[in-house]
Structure formats: structure tokens, C-alpha cells
Design brief:
By secondary structure, the chain is α+β, with helices and mostly antiparallel strands. About 30% of the residues lie in helices and about 15% in strands. It has 2 domains: about 5-110, Zincin-like (2-Layer Sandwich), CATH 3.30.2010; about 135-180, no CATH class. It has 5 helices and 8 strands; from the N terminus they run H-E-E-E-E-E-H-H-H-E-E-H-E. A 3-stranded mixed β-sheet has the order 3-5-4, with helices on one face. A 3-stranded antiparallel β-sheet has the order 7-6-8, with no helix packed on it. Strand 6 (about 135) and strand 7 form a beta hairpin. The longest helix has 19 residues, at about 70-90. It starts with 5 loop residues before the first helix and ends in a 5-residue tail after the last strand.
Length: about 180
């Protein structure tokens, strides 16, 4: 099934749910595109930065691998979710993730139509991959699986118990390859 062009869908959702606030004239304030195939665990993202989608510096990326095989409603829902992030950032000029402004707009959109449902987290089928790493706390020995190594991650239990809830280098998690655990 070929992927639907996102720009016409963006313009329609912008008119219907954002009062045209995500465009200036006919030009979107944010670039919109399908991923190049690397987004495999998340349905979409909104990001901004100097090196992001020049000259706009903002973009919405939807997952080609995840959404490509799902019904159109999944694409609409995900694009609308990311457009709410853009709206909170560009129109409200607020720095929040899924905070009160996001949730209020999400609820208003869901109440206003019944073609799709916007949610904070998608429920699309994502193939599960085994963890590549086991994180190990050097203090208490607690072990938990991780898909990737996270720099500066520490054992919360030990930080709470030994350092008043503050991050401390003595609680930094170490990582061993998951296959060594078997």
C-alpha cells in the first residue's frame, strides 16, 4: 500500500483543528515528512533545532515502517499528535511535552470529530526485540534489561536510599551484553 502524501493531510488538519495557526500564508511553519525507515519503535516525532529541516528548524517525522502497514486513521492520529506538539511550541510558546496545554487540545480534537483518536501513547503493534544490554547497579546488584546503553543512568533505589534522592556517580549503572546473561 503506497504511503499517503503528508502535506495535504497536514493542511486539512491545520484548518480543522488548529485554526490555520501552523501555516503562514500557505507555507507550513514546520516541515512534514515520512521517515527514511529508521523510526521503528515510535510512530512519530516533532523536533526543533538549528540543524533540523533548514531553514525552518522544525519538523514532524512519521514512521514509515510502523504506519505504512496500518489504516489511514493511524497516520491521521499520529500526525495530529505531532501537530499538537508543534502548536504548543510555536503558537503557545510553551515548553511542555504532554502537559496541560497538550492534553486540553488533544481532548478538544477528540471531542470534535470521530474519524480518529489522538492519544498520548500509540497502541500500534510494534515488533518486540530482545534487550541488547543488562544494566547492573554496582551497589545493590539490581539488574534490568535495556535496549540501549543510557549514559549517566543510575539506580534510583540506591540514589534514594544512600544519597537523599540525588543522582550520585556511585550508583551509575554498568552494562553487560544480554547474551552473557543467558
Amino acid at each position: 500500500m503506497p504511503l499517503e502524501p503528508l502535506l495535504p493531510l497536514f493542511h486539512r488538519l491545520n484548518r480543522e483543528h488548529f485554526e490555520g495557526s501552523l501555516t503562514q500564508g500557505h507555507q507550513p511553519l514546520v516541515a512534514v515528512r515520512w521517515s527514511d525507515g529508521r523510526l521503528r519503535r515510535t510512530a512519530g516525532l516533532y523536533r526543533r533545532g538549528v540543524s533540523v529541516a533548514p531553514p525552518l528548524g522544525r519538523e514532524i517525522v512519521l514512521s514509515r515502517p510502523l504506519l505504512g502497514q496500518l489504516p489511514r486513521e493511524a497516520t491521521e492520529s499520529t500526525l495530529c499528535h505531532e501537530m499538537i506538539h508543534a502548536w504548543v511550541d510555536l503558537v503557545l510558546k510553551s515548553n511542555e511535552s504532554h502537559g496541560p496545554n497538550f492534553l486540553a487540545r488533544m481532548q478538544a480534537i477528540n471531542a470534535d470529530q470521530d474519524r480518529f483518536e489522538v492519544s498520548v501513547r500509540h497502541r500500534f503493534p510494534v515488533p518486540q526485540q530482545p534487550p541488547r544490554w543488562i544494566a547492573v547497579c554496582p551497589r545493590c546488584g539490581w539488574r534490568t534489561p535495556y535496549r540501549r546503553r543510557v549514559k549517566q543512568a543510575a539506580c534510583r533505589q540506591c540514589c534514594n536510599q544512600h544519597h537523599g534522592g540525588r543522582w550520585h556517580p556511585s550508583c551509575l549503572l554498568g552494562y553487560v551484553p544480554a547474551q552473557e546473561e543467558s
